[in-house]
Design goal:
Mean pLDDT: 88
Radius of gyration: 20 Å
Shape: globular
Helix content: 10-25%
Order of helices and strands: HEEEHEEEEEEEEE
Structural class: alpha+beta
Number of domains: 1
Length: 181
């Protein structure tokens, strides 16, 4: 009987710890989520646009991954960007986001993400949707502990986008980084 009580106690403790870890992850995610945004300088004013996620598509074939860039897609209300991470900077299945620090990512006008066509576009407040014809993202920092769609891993840095109307807009970004593949 005493063994049963000990076993039940250990199971309860293990269950409680797991629940606690989930609570920590959720709390950390909410704190990080508040930072996920583009902050762009538009007509002399800062415009903040929330971001939801940066999905990065990985290749299962390591040799292919070493020779080809990884596609990424950034999404948020009024924001859709497609781009590439150089093959040399592949974060791979170990989620080595630190490899992107001090690296330049390329924003493309259009591309594919998991076989789906994606066009880069942005809708600035009070303006119609505008195509993004290209740009760059310079990653300055990587933070976060928790992986996956419910995690809090965050990339942040500077962004520059060229718009179809000829304007170039610059600012900063912080975005939740998630791998798929």
């Amino acid at each position: 009987m005493s063994r049963l009580i000990i076993v039940l106690g250990l199971l309860c403790t293990a269950g409680c710890l797991g629940s606690s870890e989930e609570e920590y992850a959720a709390k950390d995610r909410e704190a990080s989520k508040a930072t996920w945004a583009l902050v762009l300088k538009v007509d002399g004013a800062d415009v903040r646009m929330p971001l939801e996620v940066m999905n990065v598509l990985l290749f299962k074939d390591e040799d292919h991954a070493k020779q080809n860039p990884s596609a990424f897609e950034i999404a948020g209300p009024g924001v859709k960007l497609i781009g590439e991470i150089a093959a040399a900077d592949n974060v791979d299945y170990g989620e080595h986001w630190e490899r992107l620090v001090n690296k330049m990512l390329t924003i493309k006008a259009a591309g594919q993400f998991h076989r789906d066509p994606v066009e880069s576009k942005i809708t600035l407040p009070g303006k119609p949707e505008t195509a993004v014809t290209g740009g760059t993202m310079f990653v300055e920092k990587y933070t976060g502990k928790w992986s996956g769609a419910q995690g809090n891993k965050t990339l942040s840095g500077k962004i520059m986008m060229q718009l179809e109307d000829g304007r170039t807009i610059e600012g900063t970004f912080a975005v939740h980084a998630v791998t798929w593949g």
